[in-house]
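C-alpha cells please, single chain.
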Amino acid sequence: MASEPATTETVPSEPQARHIVYCGVCTLPPEYCEFGGTAKKCQDWLEKNQPDLHEKLYSEEAVAATLSTLSLDAQKRAAKDSQKKEAKAAAAEAKAAETKAQAQILIKRVERNKRKYVTAVSGLEAHGMDLKKVAKEWGKKFATGSSVTKTASGGEEVVVQGDNSDDIFDWVVDVAGVPEANVECIEDKKKKGA
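Here you go.
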C-alpha cells in the first residue's frame, strides 16, 4: 500500500483580522480618498507614507486602466468633477487660513471677590486647538482648576482659576504659535450687586 504524503493546511477556525491602511489626511481608506474633497493632499500623504499602495492606485497604468473602462462622456465628466473638487478644496483651505489669521484670542482677568481672580480665555477654537485638552494642560501647568464653559453668546471659553493671564499669554504665543497681534488681554471688574 502506497501512502501519499498528507497535505494538511492550517485553516484558521476564527476569521483573521485584516490590516487596513487609513489616510492620514481624510481618515478614509486610500481607495476612497477621491471622494473626500482633499484628493491632492491625500495623494501626497500616500506617496510619502505608503509608496507601494500609491504606486498601485496612482501609477500611469492604474489610471489608464480605470479611465479606459469609462465612456468618452464619462471621462470628460470625471475630469470636470475632479477640477471642481480641487478648486473647492483650495478655496476652503484659503478661507480657513484667512479666518485663522483674523481670529482674536481674548484673555480676560475677571475679579471674583476682593483678591480672587479667574482668567477666561476665548477664541482658541478658531486656531485649531481642542479646548478640553488645553484646559487640562493649563490645569496641570498652573496647578489650578480649569474647565471649559459655555458663554452667554453661545461660544465656549476656558476658565482658569487664579490670575494667570500673563502666563497664558506667553503660552498662547510661544507654544500655540499665535501671533501677538491676535492675542488681547482684558481686565474685567465684577459689577457689585445693588
